[in-house]
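FAQ: What does the model actually see?

It sees only this:
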Amino acid sequence: MISAKAMHPGDILTASNGKTIEVNNTDAEGRLTLADALIYADKLKLDAIVDLATLTGACIVALGETIGGMWSTSAELAQAINTAAESAGEKFWQMPLEDSYFDQLKSVVADCKNTGSRSGGAITGALFLKQFISETPAWAHLDIAGPVWTDKENSYNNAGGTGFPVRTLVNLITGYAS
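And it is asked to produce this:
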């Protein structure tokens, strides 16, 4: 613990929309910040939101080090991301937003917990984030934990940060702009 004010397992946090979150894993702190960012973006009355994060090691286990995970509430947005990724030479695999898995995030002391069990961890990570989108008609979460870093040299860069999925996002934005 860095200080007496550090987050502890069992702490209850209140997101900016009033939802309460039981912290059961202090290593899953990024999604707590991302939740408030999604709440802020959701209030802007946007047509779509795409968030990305190195959210879970579970996504690396599921898809390996070269494919990112994608969860979306919109088939059209998911297709647009896939098209943008394909032309960028980057890969995403659409994963299910299986609502029954949210049971793992239920809490007896808060609206939800910040993590579920080990089983389906990438899905429950996306389901956690989904709780903070209420007005935006199309949302996608991209878990880039696997492809964001490499130990191998490749055609784009030396070992290290890959820049994944910047090319996809540029293609997606320019596709929407045209």
